[in-house]
Prior knowledge:
The complex is a heterodimer. Chain A is mostly helical.
Amino acid sequence: MVAHLLRLKVTLLRNSVRRNPWQLVGLGIGALYALGVVGLCVVGLLLLRGQDVALAQTVVVLGGAAALLGWAVIPVAASAADLTLDPARFTTFAVPTPQLLAGLALGGLIGIPGAATALVALATVGTFSRSIPATAAALVGAVLGVLTCIVLSRVVTTATAGLASSRRFKDVSAVAFLIPLVLMGPIIGTVARGIAGSQDFLTELASTLSWTPAGAAFSLGGDVAAGNPGAAAVKFVVALATLAGLALCWKIMLQRALVTPPYVGTSRKRAGGLGLFGVFPATPTGAVAARSLSYWLRDPRYAGALVVVPLLPVLMLFQGSQSGFYGPFQFVGPVTAFLLAWSISSDVSYDSTAFALHVSTGVRGLHDRLGRAVACLSFALPVVLLFSIGPFFFTGGWDRLPAVLGLALGVLFTGLGLASVVSARYTVNVPLPGDSPFKKPPGNVAQTLAVQFGGMGVLMVLVAPELALVAAQFITGSSVPGWITLVLGPVLGVALFVVGVRVGGAWLDRRAPELLAQLAVDR
Amino acid sequence: MTYQPPAPDGPPAPPAPPVPALSLRGLAKRFGDKIAVDGIALDVPAGSFYGVVGPNGAGKTTTLSMATGLLRPDFGTALVHGVDVWQEPLRAKKLMGILPDGVRLFDRLSGTQLVTYAGLLRGMDKDVVTSRVRELLAALDLTQDAGTLVVDYSAGMTKKIALASALIHAPRLLVLDEPFESVDPVSAANIRDILDRYVASGGTVIVSSHVMDLVQRMCDHVAVVAGGRVLAAGTVEEVRAGVSLEDRFVQLVGGRSQAEGLEWLRTF
């Protein structure tokens, strides 16, 4: 039965690849990335073999505890739990529970995260292969540790299944998860500096953790190698008890979950207000704008982009404070303008087949384009102005403000115009409505890359005049090109915006059914 | 939803044949190697309640998509009250209300917002939209959930809100793809009442369905589609030729497996 379950998992993986060859490319890219990270870890762990046992022990125990934390938190936070072997699908088959549990646990090893964790864990055996008992202890520890990771992950996802299937939680957690991800650089920088100053603390932490369920399994090899078989024996018991306890928890929760499907609470009933539809004018353009802006606020795929925006200056300020060079920080305005304007280039792809409403109501292409652009502009314009002017309060050098402001406005309007054309013609591979913003479905990866990079290339050409003028000011030091940019940027930008909206609208009028057919394929 | 008979052109010489609400000629569509619709011709008389039935994969949804301007046909024409859907799409789409099957909705809008959006996209006046939205939601038992996001609706409620979006501009022709799927019996009866009254006042309704019994009771005309072709079309009485529509459908479409084999199923 366990073998059946494992074969099922492999078959599911193989069939998903067979259905769409591009998924194989995605899997390949993921595997390459994982292989790089795993390779680094394995090499590092093997190098540790020649080092002091205490140091190796600290690294392995802390790494093991971090892996455990990752397996517990990431699937829930990113709403990306692997549901290919969802226990709920086995409800109607009379699979004996112990075998179901074993099959599901071992099935967790098939796939990139499981395989990567297992490989790195096995490398710790190499770290401690200093004597036969130490090698054996490390192997036992690695096996226990990896199984604990997988079972813990299952316990957490089963326990939070009710919570995680509520739409509101999914929306919020997916967006909140972005914040640490974006700030990864500063966080790692700060932590690394902290660590450099407190080696003793880490050694202390590792030796404490090794007595707890979090680090016991991965400390077995180190303890035996250091000549503490007694401590290792106690920790072996701790690790085994941890795994057994978690497995028991999982079994009980699974048995309950199988007969009581998660109940997604009813949402409060509210009277139907018009919301933003009451704010924008009651025209097709106004309606499209109101709808788009509602989505910017309510759909995590859009809201994710909004959460990242205020973090940009933080990121660049941090980078500036590290290097003492605040040049990039002054350009946070144009960069933000680019990101926000370009974000509507996949607007129709985000609609997915809901775009059928625009086709069936026969809304004019021009109104569709203009509405989407206005929705983005309504918050992008103030943000870009603020981000363009704000940094100069920190850095001074006000003579550069006209150039930066002109460039930012030029990029914003030109980008919106170009994005209006692009999204009227090409669909790209984006997360489906209601899915996690991290979960891209397999699709036309090649076209997505071509559209994204091609579009950015065209945008570079279109804003070349502004870029050249800004460069001229920075090279010559004269403020004249800057003032020219301040005039040229908005004028050229708005002209290209009008052209873009018109061309995009005309394309949409001609090709809306073809675009819808393309969306139906991507779905 | 009042039906205006087309104004007679010129002198009242010979009475011109009435313009059909929907007229399909030689519609065909191919997806890769598979021919989904193979030259369908169909006339839906104005003021009729027309059922389109067929087995799974018969090409019903593809045909209706091509007839309503959502999917460009490889060959053939579709006329709505004499207006070519693919030559003058904007005029034709004004005459039609569409409930497509298998497409998403803008489901992060509330029920009120979604129906309002459909009205405003068609360029309707705001006050008219507001009052019609209120009436439609009341008629479809959705007033309680008017402020709930459509993403949190049940499957039946989602169908009903999509139907409201199709009705908002008082079209002359309603094309409904599987309108009763997962709708509860009470709501289904309410929807049938609305549609009956709509037809009685001169509107035309086309529904596709798997449920023969429902089509036989509800519709006055029916077309049986299979393999991308029309096997029979006409009034329900003509098509069913004395037997029940379900029996006639099985005769036409075939594919009933004889109840042989599976003896072990009776051995327990």
